[in-house]
Amino acid sequence: MSYLYAAYVATWAIHIAYLGYLLRRYGRLRTEIEDLKKKR
Amino acid sequence: MKRAFPILAVLTAVLLSYGLYGALIVAPTEKTMGDVQRIFYYHVPSAWTAFTLFFLNLAASIVYLIRRNPKADALAFAAAEVGVVFCTVVLVTGPIWARPVWGIWWTWDLRLTLTLVLWLIYVSYLMLRRFSTSGQTPMMAAVLAVFGALDVPLVYFSIWFFRTQHPQPVIGGGGSIDPRMLHVLLINWAAFSCFAVLVCWSRYHLEVLSREVEETQALESLLEAGNSR
User: What pLDDT digit, counting tens, does each position of B32-54 carry?
Assistant: First the structure.
C-alpha cells in the first residue's frame, strides 16, 4: 500500500508544485502591471 | 472561456474526487499485483493526457509555422509545459509501480527509454524557449516541436510492435480489462483531461499577458529614452 500512496502523493505534489509556480508568476505579473499603471 | 472556467473547475474537482474514490474503493483489486496496481488509474491517464498535450503543441506549432500567429505560439508553449508536467508524473509513478512488481525501479526497456527521450525532447523545447534570446526562437521551437512529436507514436506503439517489459495495452491490441476497472480508468482520464484544459488555459493566458507586459515595458523604455533626449 505504501507504494500506492507514494505514487498518488507524488502525482499531486508535482501538480501542486506546478500550480504554485503558476500562481507565483501571476503574482509577479500583477506587480509589473501595477508598476506600469503607476508610471502612467 | 472565462465564463466556462468556473464551471469546468467545479466539474474537474468533482471528477477528480470521484476518480480518486473509484481508484481506491470502487475498482476491484487486481489478482496478481494487488493494491499497487491501482497506480494504473493515475499512471495511464497521465500518459494519455501528456500525449494529447504534445499533439496540441504539434498542431499549434504547425499553425505558427504556416501563419506566424503569436497566439498559436503561446498555445504551443503552454501545451508543451503542461505536457512535461504530466509526462513527469508518468516517469515518477512508473518506477514507483515497477519497484514492487518487477523488483526494480527502472530498466532500459524500449517504452520506458522512449518515454524518457520524449520528456527530454520537451524539456529541451522549454529550455530553448527560456534561454534563447534570438528573434527566431518561436520558429526554432516550432520546428523542434514537429520533430519531437514524432516520438509520441513511437512511445505509444512500442509495446504493440516490440516485446517489452512494459505491460501490453489494456484497450485495443488484444488486451482485456474488467469493466469496473475500465470505468474508473475512463473517469480518471476525463478528470485529468479537464484538469489539463484548466491548467493549459491558465498557462496560455499567463503567457499572452506576460508578452503584452513585456511589449508595454519595452515601449515605455523607448518613450523614456525619447523624452530624455
Answer: 899 999 999 999 999 999 999 99
Indicate the residue of A1, A6, A25 with minimum beta-carbon distance to B206: A25
* Cβ–Cβ < 8 Å for B111, B164: yes
CB-based contact, A9 to chain B, within 8 Å? no
**With an 8 Å Cβ cutoff, are B85 and A15 in contact?**
yes
Domain ranges of chain A: 1-40
ipTM over 0.90: yes
SS (H, E, C) chain A: CHHHHHHHHHHHHHHHHHHHHHHHHHHHHHHHHHHHHHHC
Are B129 and B82 within 8 A, CB to CB? no
From the list B36, B46, B209, which residue is nearest A4 (CB)?
B36
Dihedral sign from CA coordinates of B125, B126, B132, B135: positive
Per the listing, cell 474514490 goes with B21
Residue B211 in grid coordinates:
508578452
A29:B88 CB<8 A: no
Does the beta-carbon distance from B93 to A33 stay under 8 Å?
Answer: no
Q: d(Cα B98, Cα B93) in Å, to the nearest integer?
A: 9
The single-letter code of the amino acid at B52 is T
Give the tens place of pLDDT for each residue, B75-116. 999 999 999 999 999 999 999 999 999 999 999 988 899 999
CA–CA gap between residue B116 and residue B141 (Å, rounded): 19
Q: How far apart, in whole angstroms, are the C-alpha atoms of residue B9 and residue B198?
A: 7
